[in-house]
Design a protein that fits this description.
2 domains; 164 residues; three-stranded antiparallel β-sheet; alpha+beta; Outer Surface Protein A, domain 3; 20% helix
Length: 164
């Protein structure tokens, strides 16, 4: 049983849960795991049946993360570090462009997942949004786009690294 905060609206359609709040909307489908999700007043009950308690606990944790995301939001900070070539990072639509990374002519790109917002201020990249998984995946995409291969990582430490 997960209590629904007062400032959050919840809609349960079968195994799909839609949560709305002041920071946005998060929709998550829990298909194929054999759980029954029902709204009971000001709470959501997740029934796992026989032996589904661990899955039910996992779904309850996802629901709590969704409630926190639409009411408070999630944010992460990454830092741009370059020593060899001055690189620039900019947001264009649903992509982050990393230009002049270790002197490359073609810019590297990283996808922005879901309703996540990305801001670049100086050497800091701020990633925020209502969905914890989308914020984390966007940060991972940016980090992976600047991963250096086939060079000594002790010498070439350029990249965009998570700080907070």
């Amino acid at each position: 049983m997960v209590d629904i905060p007062k400032e959050v609206e919840v809609e349960v359609k079968g195994s799909t849960v839609v949560v709305k709040g002041k920071r946005g909307k998060v929709e998550k489908s829990f298909n194929g795991i054999g759980l029954k999700i029902e709204r009971r007043g000001d709470a959501i009950e997740v029934d796992g049946g026989n032996g589904g308690k661990m899955l039910a606990g996992t779904v309850e944790s996802h629901l709590k993360n969704m409630f926190q995301g639409v009411s408070e939001g999630y944010s992460r900070r990454l830092q741009i570090i370059h020593s060899h070539f001055p690189m620039s990072v900019e947001v264009k639509g649903k992509e982050v462009l990393i230009k002049n990374f270790i002197g490359e002519k073609k810019p590297r790109t990283a996808d922005i997942v879901g309703d996540t917002k990305v801001e670049v201020k100086g050497t800091d990249v701020f990633v925020s949004g209502p969905d914890k998984e989308a914020v984390g995946q966007t940060c991972a995409n940016i980090y992976q786009a600047t991963k250096i291969k086939q060079k000594d990582s002790r010498v070439f430490q350029d990249g965009v690294y998570p700080v907070e």
